Amino acid sequence: MASNIVTTEWKKNLLFKSDNPNGANILIDTSYANGGNEAGASPKALMLSSLAGCSGLDVVMIAEKMRTSFEDLKIIVEANLTDEHPKYYDKVHVKYLFDGKDLDHEKLTKVVNLSVEKYCGVMEMFRQFATVTTEIIFN
After folding, report:
1. Which pLDDT tens digits describe the chain residue by residue (139 residues)?
2. Could you tell me if 47 and 35 lie in one domain?
3. Alpha helix locations (H) across the chain?
4. Do both 6 and 57 map to the same domain?
5. pLDDT value for 43
6. Are residue 108 and residue 68 in the same domain, yes or no?
7. N or C end of the chain: which has fewer CB within 10 A?
8. Of 122, 103, 46, whose CA–CA distance to 111 is shortest?
């Protein structure tokens, strides 16, 4: 079983710097309305970015293996935050927007489904606490 260690360090006010096991750093902060300085991403928004990034990595790698291509991919994650504390995402919708010439809709749909149903661990984590839906759009 693999383990990861992340160290998060308080910098000032509500700003934190967090490392990644590969050495990259990110800043975490909150909105002005909540007392922060908006100098970094909010923790909940980072969760949505993690979901998009995890599935996006899968999609690119699987598409290469299936010898199908696209010129651009955008992943938009829309999430509903509950009103009561602790606030969490109870509904999440992930849109995959593919751009390119001669897109193979059938293969790309299979690629996305493999990520969603089999490979994306962050997607599986989200399914533990939220209803997750997906949509694929071809341009």
Report:
1. 778 899 999 999 999 999 988 889 999 999 999 999 999 999 999 999 999 999 999 999 999 999 999 999 999 999 999 999 999 999 999 999 999 999 999 999 999 999 999 999 999 999 999 999 999 999 9
2. no
3. 43-65, 105-114, 121-127
4. no
5. 96
6. yes
7. N
8. 103
Question: Do 52 and 119 have their domain in common?
Answer: yes
**DSSP-assigned states of every residue in 58-89:** HHHHHHHHTT---SEEEEEEEEEEPSSSSP-E
Determine if residue 35 is left, alpha or beta; phi over 0 gives left, psi from -120 to 50 gives alpha, anything else beta: left
The structure tokens listed for 8 are 């998060």
The residues, any chain, with a CB within 8 Å of residue 11's CB and separated by 6 or more, are 17, 27
Question: Are 98 and 49 in the same domain?
Answer: yes
- The number of residues in the chain equals 139
